[in-house]
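agent: user wants the structure for Molybdopterin molybdenumtransferase from Rhodococcus spongiicola. delegating to structure tool.
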Amino acid sequence: MAHQQRHPGTARSVEDHAADVSDLLGSLLTRPSETIRLDDALGRVLSDDISSPIDLPLFRNSQMDGFAVDSASIATVPATLPIVATVPAGPAEPAAHLAATAVRIMTGAVMPSGADAVVPVEDTEVSDDKVTVYRSRSAGEFVRERGSDVRTGALLLTSGTLLAPRHISVLAAVGLPSVAVRTRPKVAIITTGAELVDAGTTPGPGQIFDSNGAALAASARANGAEVAIVDRSGDEPDAFRSVLRRAVAHAELVITSGGVSMGDYEVVKDVLTELGARFGRIAMQPGGPQGLAVVDGVPVLTFPGNPVSTLVSFEVFVRPLLRRAAGLPPISPAEATLDHDVTSVPGKRQFLRGRRTASGVEVVSGPGSHLVAALAWADVLLDIPADATSLAAGDRVKVWPL
Ligand SMILES: Nc1nc2c(c(=O)[nH]1)N[C@H]1C(S)=C(S)[C@@H](COP(=O)(O)OP(=O)(O)OC[C@H]3O[C@@H](n4cnc5c(N)ncnc54)[C@H](O)[C@@H]3O)O[C@H]1N2
Ligand code: MOO
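agent: tool returned. relaying tokens verbatim.
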């Protein structure tokens, strides 16, 4: 393959390469579960159904600040009753309640056993140790019965639920300190290039900030992965080999950026070709040069170094599979109406950076794969089929949310 790279054969289709990637990443899809603290569970996916271990409410309590009464004694109003006790919210056994008396009660406090209604304080007037009730309430009003929300053993949440704050709320309400979730696929990111330096330093002549490391790590996390390693190597094969060895030891998927096209220092291509990788061109733009390998049993995907190419490669080839592995809902394409004419390269499926508008969608970037600032304005990729060379304003186009 190394000899053929200056005369690349026919480009493969996006669909064919996606199928190869899907085969390669198949092992990521079956995931064991792990038990984690509820505090860490936001955004994770439940691996089991969860039934309630308790009744909710856990005890019969007041829904209002007011007076617990028996409804029969306030059937005719105004009714004046002696106040015999006060119950704040807090640890307490149910107070005894005698007919034709009132117990001053706070929201969430244990209901006295004989009382069957709460009169909100607004409908009463207190003088000395008596309360006059001005509005009748029937049995059950403003009383929260034990188990009226959920009963012990009833289904709370189903396996596969993506935990949002409302789910955390109920799990905490039933007193669960931990929860079983799907493990996240562990991903390692390796960027390559002698020109790369870290943010926070000053680039010397010919140097640039490494943006693909941060971008790919963020993409992986945004799609349910755990990023085990973000590392970098220069263009020396030994440096790349050593970074690669560490990555495959700690991750279930390694993604590299750079070093795969036609230059003299294609470290990723050179090292991985020795290890049996397949490289080739895919009929797409951006993201044309792609490769895949298995190193020590771990799948390795090699993305082109141009920052837009790297991110588009991730969205097209990895995002769907990572989301499936993580148990996240799939991202589906939509259709939108083009606000203006668009031209496209024949024979390549183009992913143009676009933004939704009130009327449809517009392109926000030129075709250059280095245009990261323009990419940041985009919220969709316009998916222009390989056989299209031009589309007109008003045409419908497939768009993928970013
Ligand atoms: N003669 C040819 N040259 C190129 C071809 C070609 O077909 N024939 N293809 C072009 C296309 S398309 C792409 S895409 C790139 C892919 O190149 P590589 O994957 O080998 O990537 P590099 O050469 O290492 O870098 C390309 C570009 O991106 C910048 N870069 C790389 N890594 C990072 C990073 N982590 N953060 C920010 N920017 C990065 C790098 O400095 C280069 O400017 O090849 C074309 N050339
Ligand atoms: O494929 Mo390159 O990714 O067009 O810029």
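agent: one observation worth passing along. The CA atoms of residues 195 and 205 lie 9 Å apart.
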